[in-house]
Amino acid sequence: MRLTRYSLEKQRTLVARGFVEREKVISSLLDMGFSDIHINGLLHLWPGTHTQQLLDIISELILLGLNPEPVYMALKQSPQLLKLPIVHMKKRSGYLRKLGLGEGKLKTVLLCSPEIFTMHQRDIDSIVGVLKEKCLFTVQQVTKILHRCPYVLREDPGELEYKFQYAYFRMGVKHSDMVRTDFLQYSITKIKQRHVFLERLGRYQTPDKKGQTHITNPLLKDILRVSEAEFLARTACSSAEEFEVFKKLFAREEEEGSESHMPYSKSLSLDEDEDEDEEEVEE
Q: Does the predicted model carry a pTM greater than 0.85?
């Protein structure tokens, strides 16, 4: 009887404690601006997560400038974020602020690449190092790239550098244009296929050292931002059949010449035509 009474009292205590903790979470989330729908969703993610841990993680995301809606979507998409040590979360948040990704700029990054909080610091440093030291983007430009093209965080540093070098040396694309058009978000395969196809059709020409060409090159947005059908109809003025044949032949050429994967690995220095990049970049 005594054991039974003790067991019942213990269960009541645990239930009461759980109720108090739940009410604490609900009250805190309401104060942060979460709706009832958000709160119900977050409470389903809550089991197994300590109350204070849940609130600490969410508070840290709010402090980075995120609104409740993107916080809810990010945690729903990546509930493993709730298991991160708060010390790690605070340290990573401070690092992201140094990169300029506070003040709400983190929304796109978090929704596209939530692993920015879970990946190793050295991996983030490698990507940022390539953008700053190998590609010579300015600090402001690096912030815009990470904000608008967060998928670069998933890229191999060597591949990312190669993509930049291909654009800069082979296509003659300036730093400011790469940032403005979100160039680095596209795969190197898509970039090379469309660029070389236009080149062989006589519709694209690499600018000389003065940035001049004998023809007017199509805009980057008309090469990469459009669907394949629109690219062929409006930019290449060619057929789908011709492009399919080209892609097969080009893939074979790439495979046979894979040893020349780094043909543009020369040291880059910003000359006078790049001095304007900091002012030119637009949102």
A: no
